[in-house]
Design brief:
The chain is mostly helical. The chain has a domain of 94 residues: Arc Repressor Mutant, subunit A (Orthogonal Bundle). The chain has 6 helices and 2 strands; from the N terminus they run αααββααα. A two-stranded antiparallel ribbon has the order 1-2. Strand 1 and strand 2 form a beta hairpin. The longest helix has 17 residues. 17% of the residues are buried. Pfam families: Rrf2. Keywords: DNA-binding. It comes from Hoeflea algicola.
Length: 156
């Protein structure tokens, strides 16, 4: 199973906002830090705000921050909010056309695997995966460019 880019970015946005603490961060800042599309992050931030994970502040000095403590943001809940399709195989979709669906044992195996996958996410909160502000220390870059975060244990 592969998570969508949307879910990946959602986790990254939450981690970045969490590392910033009370400081409002912007979509532009976050996009530059991760070297990803602002347009895509805007969709992610809007969804996370509507879902109650982020608090957005509009205006020139606006931005976003976590809407609740990181300990209260369950990763399984975030995955369920951001992933649109958990059907691992065709027979788990509403439009199933598989001719052996009535007797096949694969769906129960796939559901068991998916439940185990989600159970792992359910055991963790954003606090468990958050980086510290120091981990997001931005290295000096030419012309004021923001560089990607300096992550601990990178490449190990």
């Amino acid at each position: 199973m592969k998570l969508t880019t949307f879910s990946d970015y959602a986790l990254r946005v939450l981690m970045y906002a969490g590392a910033a603490g009370e400081r409002l961060v912007t979509i532009e800042e976050t996009a530059k830090a991760y070297r990803v599309s602002q347009a895509h992050l805007m969709k992610v931030v809007n969804m996370l705000t509507k879902a109650g994970y982020l608090r957005g502040v509009r205006g020139r000095s606006g931005g976003f921050t976590l809407a609740k403590p990181a300990e209260q943001i369950n990763l399984g809940a975030v995955m369920r909010a951001t992933e649109v399709d958990f059907a691992l195989v065709e027979c788990l979709t509403p439009s199933n056309q598989c001719v052996i669906s009535g007797c096949c044992r694969l769906p129960s195996l796939m559901n068991q695997a998916l439940n185990a996958f989600m159970a792992t996410f359910d055991q963790y909160t954003l606090a468990d995966i958050m980086l510290s502000p120091r981990d997001f220390a931005l290295s000096a870059a030419p012309e004021g460019e923001i560089r990607a975060p300096v992550l601990p244990n990178a490449g190990q």
